[in-house]
Amino acid sequence: MWDNKRFHTLNYELKKKFGEKIYKVSLDGGFTCPNRDGTLAYKGCIFCSDKGSGEFAGDRRKSIGDQIEDQLKLIEKKFPKGKVIAYFQSFTNTYAPIEKLRKIYSEALSHPRVVGLAIATRPDCLQNEVLDLLEELGREYPIWIELGLQTVNEKTSQLINRGYSLEQFTISAENLRKRKIPFVTHLILGLPGESKTDILKSVRFVNKSKSWGIKLHLMHVIKDTALHEYYKKKYFPLMEKQIYIELVVEILEILDPKMTVHRITGDGTRDTLIGPLWSLDKRSILNGVDKLLKEKNSYQGKFYKED
Ligand code: SF4
Description:
By secondary structure, the chain is an alpha/beta fold. The protein is 37% helix and 16% strand. The strands form 2 sheets. The chain has a 7-stranded parallel beta sheet. It is globular and about 45 Å long.
C-alpha cells in the first residue's frame, strides 16, 4: 500500500521525498520539435495539438518566471504556499542549443517555490551534452525526464508518426540509467488498431526498461489534429469508460511495484476535445480504478514477474 492507495503514486513518492505535498506547474519553454519543424516531419505525432501536447501549460510569450507565477495563481486556493516541480511540458524541451537549455532550466530553478524539474522530450533529442547538463543539474536538484513512447508496436508507431525507433528509445533509456537520471515513460491506451495484447506488451516493455515512472494516457481525439482527420475518415471506436478502467487495473496488476505511476487518465480540454467525452470527468475515472482495485482485492504488482 502506498499512503492508502493501491498503486504507487507520484504523490506518495514526492511526499516521501519532501515530507509534504508537492504540486507540478506546467510550462512552455518556447521550444519546437524535430517532428514538427521539418527536420523529421511537419505534422508531428498524429495526436499532437498546436500546443505541442501541453494543453494546460503556461503562455509561451511570457518569461518562465511569469509563467510560474501564473500557474501558481491557478492553484492558489488549494495550494497557497507549498513547493512545486516545474514541468516543461510543451513540445520537445531538450531541443535547443545547450546554453538556451541551461538558461531556461536555471530560470525555473531560481524561483523560490520550485524544488525540481520534469522535462518532456524525445529519445532522439538526448545527445551527450544534454545528458551532461541534466546530470549536472540532477546532482543538486531532483530532475526527471519524460519520454513519449506511446507503444512498442512498430505498425502503430508508424501510424502515429512517432518518428523514432524502439531501438532509439532503448539506447536513450540505457544512457539515462547509466547517469542515474530518472525517466518516466508515456503510453497511450486505445490507439487505433491496438488490442489489449498489444497494450500489455508495451507495459511489459516499460517494466523491462527500468523506467522510474509511467504515465498512462487514454487516447483522446483533439480538434484539428491529424488524429482528428483520421478519425473523421476511419471513424474507429473510441474506448468506453468501464473498459478503460478495467484495462488500467489490469496494467497496474502487472506493473513493477517499484515504478511510480504519474498519471492514469487523458488530458484534453473541454473546448478542444472531440472524444471520448467521459474522459473530462477525471475524478470518476480515478475513483473507478480505486473501486475496482478494492473490489478485486488487488494492487500494483500483484501479478508482476521480473524477467
Ligand atoms: S514528439 Fe511531442 S511535441 Fe513532437 S510531435 Fe510528438 S507529441 Fe508533438
